[in-house]
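REVIEWER CHECKLIST
Item 1: Sequence provided? yes
Item 2: Single chain? yes
Item 3: Sequence as submitted:
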Amino acid sequence: MTAELARGQNHPLSQVRLEIRVSAGKPVAAVATLGDETGKVHGVEWVVHPGVPALPGLEVSRQAAADHRLAVDLDAMPAAVHRVNILLALPTGVGGPASFGSLASPFVAVTGLDGTEIATYTITGLDAESAVVALELYRRQGAWKVRAVGQGYAGGLAELLTDQGLSQAHQLAAGINDAVAQGLARSVPAPPPRTADADRSRQAAASALGPDQSGSPYGAQGAQGAQSTQGGAGPYGAAQNPQGPSGPGYPPSSAPGAPADPAATQPTPTPSTGGPIDYSHPRRRNAAPTPPPTAPPAQPGQPARPVAGDATGWSMEERLYNQAWGMFEDLARSAAAFRSAVDFADTRMEKELDQALSDPRSRIGGQGDAAREAAQAKHGQLVDQAREALDRDLAQLAAEAEVVEPALPAAFARWDNPVWHAYRVPMEMPMALRLGDLHLPESEPLRVPMLVRLPLERGLWIDSGRMSASDGSFADSHELRRLAMESAVAHTARLLAVHPAGEFTVHVIDPAGSGARELAPLVQSGVLAGPPAVGAAGVATVLGRLTERVDLVQMAVRGGAADSLPPGFDTSQQLLVVNDFPHGFDDRAVTQLRYLADEGPSVGVHLMMVADREDADGYGPLLDPLWRGLLRLTPVPDDHLADPWVGHAWTYEPALVPPGSRVLQQVLTQLAMARPKNT
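Item 4: Structure as written out by the authors:
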């Protein structure tokens, strides 16, 4: 839940790696000062500004811009630093506005690396001020908080820095303004959506339909419309930005007082006009967006050979995520173009036959047969043309999948990927998790990873009800329940594996003990919070404890006192796995379960149901919102994931551990060894 701060309010920071996003409407300079416990800035080496844009744990832009993203790593701050002030200043002598009173109110947001807003502040009440202290990050009793300040200075940056105890304030302010003036021409708006040149679909719809098929419902305009729907909702879940959030880069290890990097003070050459704009962050290091790998030169007349990580992003993980999303988009568009072309060919053939045979005289003799053959020949030509374009795109996507799959990190990889054999418990949560694969009837055997963002925005429902497999066969109910539990265990183990030790806790409710065999790997390895709860008493105990936790955290967050939770309170993400619902559930337990599904994700409590919808019919419409709010997954391939973007029904295949593989046991063993001893 985002905290909307007013002037003077503070809010605890639950993360240490942050982005501070600034939107001012006009170019402003972003500056940050580091202070001790009293807030005093001890020297120019404690100031991060466009001339010296990086200090340990902090990085700002080298240029003035209407929008900024500042990278902050609070764990990397020197021990002497207790306060970080974020300053905004209007450039002087460049023809811009002289005061904030002539601008819209600047907006500042503190976000996590996944783009989730933690706190926001709109700086109001500014008039003649040309510099302002926007936010203050401060350390209190070992924890960090953010405070909305909004203190403006009519005397500009020099007066502001003087107020913070800096004796060289006027000289430093002049130097900052010179550095800003040198780089002002580089301030640019945010990059536009993917252009036609960068669109990897190779204009699939246009090539499939041909130049004489403007009557198709998907025609050229339809294809362009589909391409412009970048980031629309699909089987990945709710509508998401396919580009993902831009993770910040962090400066090298140096301390206030260390010599500044000589290269940092060198003026940045202004790019010549007329060419493509370079949107990369200047001089960003470490986690910087290094140029994506480039493919070897292709043979003349052949498409470029794909490489892993050729999408945009600040890190390889983000580039691979965006590349997987791009493959999904490309496959969706190519299949939509093919289906549209075939539909058009069918419609055109019917129209031509109707016209040729509308006159009874043309039905006599060979005239009708010739018209029918001509229409069918044209139909076959159009379908072949569409199939050729689809096959070309599928071949390119298959080649891309061959290089992308081996390069995926564990969170994105299938269980049979060798990366799991080198698994180590991570130090931070990834941006997404693989729950299975997706494909379309036209794309056999191509599979696209199904990635969902973390933390989970809604729970999961593993359907153990009767369904047909992709080959048309039916599994009996007992077999489906077993497969559903195996799928749930695989998903649970993956969620545990991608979180740092002690930051993800799993509870299991198995009232009748019917899932004991499938749950054995989790139970025997000791990665669960406790033994699976059995019977009505066990159900009531676990649900009551988690419901109380949701209530407590919600009250703390809404009251702005998240740091006042009881000592020893488990702040990790929580997952409740429920098997054989509704066995062992009374009306009170059902109500609590619905409450956890609705309110739990916002405070880190997530739900995974393993159930058959028909078993809960006795509760009537009470549970309908529960089923609609959970993401339905199946233990066998099934085409139940609807795609409102282009209208496809995607076949989902669960991410299961290969039969006979011991990779699950190896991963769980490492997780158990890495768990804190008091959990």
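Item 5: Key structural point noted by reviewer: Confidence is low (pLDDT under 50) at residues 185-290.
Item 6: Recommendation: ____
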